[in-house]
Amino acid sequence: MVLPVGGGVGPIRTSASARVSLPCSPLAASAARRFVRAALADWAALEVPAADRITDQVADEAVLLVSELVTNAVVHAGTAVEVSCALDVSDREGEPPSLVVEVTDHHPTRVVRGDPPDADEPPEYAGGHGLRLVSEIAESWGTTYRRATKSVWFQMAVAPTGQAAAGGMGSAFMDAAAAVDVGDAVDAADADAAGPDGGFGTGVVPGGLESVPEGLGTVGEGRKEAIEASEIVAPAQGLVPARRDPEWIQRGALSFLAEASDLLAGQFDEDMVTSLAGQLLVPRLADWCAIWLDSTSGPPRLARVWHASEGRIEGLRQVLEKEPPHVPTAVRGSAVEWPWPADPAAYGPGGAALACRLVAGGRALGTLLLGRAGLVRMPAEVVGLIEDFARRVALALASARRYTRQATISRVLQRGLLPSVIPRIPGVESAVVYEPTGEISAGGDFYDVFPAGDGRWCFVLGDVCGNGPEAAVVTGLVRPWLRLLAREGYGVGEVLDRLNQLLGEEAVEQAVEGAAEAVVAGVEAVGGPAGVVELVDGGLVGGAGLSTGGGVARFLSLLYGELEPLGDGLGVRCTLASAGHPLPLVLRPDGEVRTVAAPQILLGVVDDVSYESESFDLTPGETLLCVTDGVTEHRSGDRQFDDEDGLAATFALCGGLSARQVAERVRRAVDDFAAEPPDDDLAMLVLKVL
């Protein structure tokens, strides 16, 4: 039941709300979709404040997201699900109302699924793009853990005042409000057709796929000989008779393609692309669909199967895995008629089927197969629309594969450029945080910690000017040079002198350019998302990536130092030098913070320069903090994080914390400083004397 609510407290009040409990069943997702549609229709019929401003697009997106979240809960939590829907109105002037939907399950210990599954994780946890879809579409979303439940909610802003009426939006739900009884009857027929065991009966497909508006005839036992394109491309709402004029059909087709382009744009995971494609096609244009993705190393992979009757999806998948389509090579991007599959258990009654190769840039990426029950053939307008849609899917898949390939290059470079673990320094606790700005933009920051012999330990934190493979190649040259020079016994200042000379040689520039071209041209593999590297005392947490960028880069800022133990309980002797790098800070146990080292010129800028080092003792309890400019220069408007010694002020609050806790406290302060994420790589090295 939908209950209007009035007289809220504070700046936000709930105009209307509704709640329903659903059993753990494959039909829960479809029931949740019907619940949200019915709630919005009831609010419109009751003239609830701001309900007339909910546009069709907001309603459709809310239905899509609640379907994904309920499916997530049923599959991964395995409990009954509560779905609540509320229309919140703000008393603040100019702030639009918002639609808030919450899905709650009763298994709070289960992990919320959203990221791509691990290769090693059990099969029962594989699949699912619910949270990734929510993050793409919703204005805001979150997860709430309670003692006995877990809730995932999302919020969507509705149209500003007058927009829905001016643009003709929202009328669909006003029509639906007048036809609630008819919708309930259709849902009941759907449930009856599915049978008590959720079998593969004919049923009634939502969205008018099997129903025929008044005046267009009825569906009998056999298949229809013809169907108006307007029934598929631009179906009427409620009981309004479908229009047949070309302009109406064209508007429906353009609206569908615009929606598809908007959802597919910017998707960098090919499985997400196929998931969205299936949900866009079914039930709007087809009763079922399947997408295969071509592979260079094996047979095509059945990436996505979708059916208007969700209880048939698994049976459909089993049939399709045995009968993959083989579209002739000569057919490139054109939809061709395909024999209706032989197994009626998964497909339902006979109908019309189409197969279309997914082609982008002259390269075939996969195959789309779809069918619509009860037809002899698809209308020509629908065939053309499916071909246009397939081209958009193919372009999205091509973009996703390029992104994956670049992300793979990033990870390949990462494995060779950064240490896999931090060695344990006797008497010193260490932690490193490294966050590249993007998954496919090679970061210029790097770090290293290594033994140099004779009880000496060396640490490095650097930042190459520029990004991309050129910056990665410079990092790949500098790290081994530093290790070699340190182990040859050169002092800190001498190491920087010789490194500066090496960077100025012409051979280095040629190596940078040539190696970068080879990296871009020669690395191919499967890929995945990059992320954050965090190393703590010999342990590896997370993973990170670099990738292609641009610009020849031979200049770099560098902080290089050595640690020599002074004896049990006496601390360490630290000698370091900074070449154009943010100066390190030392925190005493009493909270006093001081700057160490003196600023000097970048490496690689001037050939004839001599670098000086500084030595000091670090006593037990003191902490050394080294950062790159991604920390100090992180911006919030016109302000930087280190303005008015912001870094030192944050560091002063870290007394008594471990090295890892210090790194986390500083990183959190940087993240909280601005609403926008950092636009530069961020790296930190923390050393605390025990």
Record the SSE blueprint.
Blueprint: E1 2-4, E2 12-22, H1 28-45, H2 56-77, E3 81-90, E4 98-105, H3 130-137, E5 140-145, E6 150-157, H4 163-166, H5 171-178, H6 180-194, H7 229-233, H8 246-264, H9 270-281, E7 288-295, E8 298-307, H10 313-322, E9 335-338, H11 344-347, E10 351-360, E11 363-373, H12 380-417, E12 428-435, E13 445-453, E14 456-464, H13 469-487, H14 492-503, H15 506-522, E15 533-536, E16 539-542, E17 556-567, E18 571-579, E19 585-587, E20 593-595, E21 614-618, E22 623-627, H16 629-632, E23 635-636, E24 639-640, H17 646-652, H18 659-673, E25 682-689
Antiparallel strand pairs: 1-2, 2-3, 3-4, 4-6, 5-6, 7-8, 7-11, 9-10, 10-11, 12-15, 12-25, 13-14, 14-17, 15-16, 17-18, 18-21, 19-20, 19-22, 22-25, 23-24
Helix pairs in contact: 1-2, 1-5, 2-3, 8-9, 8-12, 9-12, 13-14, 13-15
